[in-house]
């Protein structure tokens, strides 16, 4: 094929629902897309059905696909994360030229993206790992896009990506350059972890409203609808309202028929593992992951419920209207903690990888299109716009005031849940983190003394930080001590 055959502005490999919808979205914005799929018959079916009457073109081989793309070629992979991405890159490489762009739009783990970035940079190919959030509808009408990798690719991708991305209420596209290497997929991973946390917080509040306050699903739906008009305004609160009000064919709430055993695809787990790797206390997302794990051992919990004692979950006898108000404050304060922890994790990874992440821009990217989109993210963007070097969200005056205002209700809601035996792992760990973070002197001095006592691991004195000493606590040990290292 000659250069005259290069008719497409963009190429996309992978014709599952996300891929098809993204192609149609790009087409809607005036760009010609070439579609390819490993099962070539899917290309013809797509062109004859969903893409009929559009400018989308197809290819029946990798050679034809590459030949139809204008230079520098811009190729997006929307295939299953893992080996499939590497295999498609290997298949593409012989047909690419220096300066061509390969984008992985799947849910890849950021170390894989970092590896691919380094490998392809050495070959002259501009690799981009792009987080895509918003599900099928987002892909079709406007996702949140989080691209990172080789910065030389961004000027070529920016006109397309910012055109197809969701728009925030002020019209800003929910897409901007994140940073080099695996930064885009790291930010998407943290987004997914925060999503786990938000969903768990909502579930815990629903549990207290259902079993503690004794409200019907419709009554809860009205409460969530009201909350969605205030500081909790968000996509997840909105869909929770719809879920609570939805009736099955027999007129009963469908929600109460769903088995309480949660699934997970691993992205929340990745966030929790990364938090441990980087030594960051991202406790709320960790608890959200563990809560799903606990839910999955359903049969064991049923057996335990018959033999383990505790207060009845319907024993709340206080002011129910006040508890409902307290729960709103508890969810808001806990949500602030979750995001503060997520940005702590991104800050640490950014320092280690020298990504120079723009946190205000990340908050903007999450304001529309994605699952965690909420009005609240505008406040986060404002915080980082006011101070790009902001050490922690909790240091921002807006969030300091928010935490002060919410605190009494937050503590009251958790106290009520504890008293009646309803588990609130995410709400509770958020408050524990907040209290720990605002405590100038934690009991870790005891931990250090214990470590030195049984393992000669040494400790620092308040009067002389940075100098490690060992004490012979029993008089029987020697003066030899273990070396100091960070796990």
Automatic annotation (TrEMBL):
EC number annotated for this UniProt entry: 1.1.1.44
Swiss-Prot/TrEMBL keywords: Gluconate utilization, NADP, Oxidoreductase, Pentose shunt
Pfam families associated with the record: 6PGD (PF00393), NAD_binding_2 (PF03446)
Keyword check for Oxidoreductase: yes
Residues engaged in binding substrate: 107, 133-135, 191-192, 196, 265, 292, 451, 457
Example GO molecular function: phosphogluconate dehydrogenase (decarboxylating) activity
Biological pathway: Carbohydrate degradation; pentose phosphate pathway; D-ribulose 5-phosphate from D-glucose 6-phosphate (oxidative stage): step 3/3
Catalytic residues identified in the record: 188, 195
Sites where the protein binds NADP(+): 14-19, 37-39, 79-81, 107
Top-rank EC class of the record's enzyme: oxidoreductase
InterPro entries found in the cross-reference section: 6-PGluconate_DH-like_C_sf (IPR008927), 6PGD_dom2 (IPR013328), 6PGDH_C (IPR006114), 6PGDH_Gnd/GntZ (IPR006113), 6PGDH_NADP-bd (IPR006115), 6PGdom_BS (IPR006184), NAD(P)-bd_dom_sf (IPR036291), Pgluconate_DH (IPR006183)
GO biological process: D-gluconate metabolic process; pentose-phosphate shunt, oxidative branch
Swiss-Prot/TrEMBL catalytic activity: 6-phospho-D-gluconate + NADP(+) = D-ribulose 5-phosphate + CO2 + NADPH
Subunit-level organization: Homodimer.
NCBIfam families: gnd, PRK09287.1
Similarity comment: Belongs to the 6-phosphogluconate dehydrogenase family.
Function: Catalyzes the oxidative decarboxylation of 6-phosphogluconate to ribulose 5-phosphate and CO(2), with concomitant reduction of NADP to NADPH.
Name assigned to this protein: 6-phosphogluconate dehydrogenase, decarboxylating
Source organism: Coemansia javaensis
Organism lineage string: Eukaryota, Fungi, Fungi incertae sedis, Zoopagomycota, Kickxellomycotina
